[in-house]
Amino acid sequence: MLVRLGRGMSSESPLSLTTNSTLKSIIPNCDCDVDFSAIASNDGSSQTISNLISNPVIAQQEDYDFFLGNNALASSDDPLLVGTAGTYNAYYSYDGNDTIDLKDITGTCIADAHRTDKPFFMTTVFLTNSSPNGNMNILGNSRVSSDLGIRLRIGSDEKLDLFISDGTEQIGRSLNNVILQPNTWYFLAITMNETGNIRSLLNNDYFEDFISKGTSTTPSTEIFSLGGVRGVSEFDNGWGLRQFGCGQSYLDGNTLLQLRDFLSIRHQHNYSV
User: Fold this and answer.
1) Spatial contact of 99 and 225, defined as CB atoms under 8 Å apart
2) Rounded distance, CA 55 to CA 245, Å?
3) Could you count the other beta carbons within 10 Å of the beta carbon of residue 250?
4) pTM of whole model > 0.70?
5) Percent of the chain having pLDDT more than 90?
6) Taking Cα atoms as reference points, which of 155, 242, 260 lies closest to residue 206?
7) Measured between alpha carbons, how far is 243 from 136 in angstroms, rounded to an integer?
């Protein structure tokens, strides 16, 4: 079910929060908040993108650190920083051969995102290029049915799809009926419970439905990537990424709105339009 929410910030917008706050100020079970506009997460010179959450519920703070590229060495697979590190409008731009990879998925809540005995939520903020094409993965760690994990993808219709792989099959579900527009910043939050009830918020479009999560209760060991899947670049030239967060909770619609409004304040960009 797709619902068009009222424009503007929600009545519960966390306006009192500072730009140094983390998503944990809204969701106690938040484990990861990496933001390329925050100097504590991205200093503009290191090969490490650091987790802002100092006390995750699951694993340790550094377990949610990412490589700029696919390892600790500077190379051609590193996206380009646009803007100045530590400023609200900084982000990483991709050229079609870049990736940002989680250092090690072992023991993190990300390894459990597909599981039938765990809830999960994630947020991301991304920028489309001048001519967004379909059939492109945004993030994830699952490419085929034999993998364990999730995959967020733009379909051939230029709409968002979520896929879950349980080791034997891969199940896909459209998240909404919104065609992505060129040169546009999007906030996206997705949350699902153990049985597959799913909620998502794309800027101002709220969606509820169901996705079969398969049968697996085994953690994933696959590489988790931003701007692609399993260490393989997917973002075309000109696409950008600003933030990723996640945790092991099933969130209601009002909380998704608060997350959107929180990142709108942090980035000084209104994601509610």
Assistant:
1) yes
2) 14
3) 18
4) yes
5) 81
6) 260
7) 18
